[in-house]
Amino acid sequence: MRYAPDAHEIQTVETLSDAERMEYFLIRIAETEEVWSLQERQNMFRHEVNGQWVAPFWPYRHFARTAALEVWQDGAPQGMSLEHFIHPTLQQLIDADLLVEIMPTADRPGCLITPHRLLDILVSMQHAREYRLDADG
Length: 137
What we know:
Largest sheet: 4 strands, mixed
Number of helices: 5
Order of helices and strands: HHEEEEHEHEEH
Strand order of the largest sheet: 3-4-6-7
CATH topology: Trna Endonuclease, Chain: A, domain 1
């Protein structure tokens, strides 16, 4: 896992709306073919947001590491291939009834999406070889 955002990109991401963060995440994981989560004692890190259990993900190690240092000190950044994220990780999240939290930070929660919807979007992107937020189209 060798990709990293530059300083300007890091600054810009901090100002993005939820929809823009989701788009940024989708584009970057498609480009780099990797996704980052936090690992806590051999398990994928999860936490509660508004009464719902969620698993956070980021497109780069930098963002996962920053979240671990600022918010979740027990979590260690763990990279995975996009293919592994699509199959089996998202299916495991569906089975566990967890939501996906996209790019949470110390200052704000991430964008929430069901793993089923994210799976549909990513599979559509793979088939079309392009990004489309509307997986139905």
